[in-house]
Write a structure and sequence with these properties.
The chain is mainly β and about 100 residues long. It contains no helices and 9 strands.
Amino acid sequence: AGVLDVGGLATVNAGNGAISLARNNDFKNGIALTGRNIAVADANDLSVVSLNNGGAGAIALTAGNSLTLPASGLTSTDNLTLRADSGTLTLGGNL
């Protein structure tokens, strides 16, 4: 698949399916995610506006610069990987 360059809010709803969006994407105004086993990478800043994984499945979020997590927090019974390669990690809520 190609690189995604989204100027507005990106909304990805995979229901109970997996979300896998590899590096070099650019979600300029945030991303809302619904699915299980979520892996998203952004070449620059990554702002996760909302994330719903039903409390299960792994979560991997990688930002080339800063990573901002949703105010609602993150809940999962599986692995949690958070990377802000060249910037800050901002927690919006509980992990």
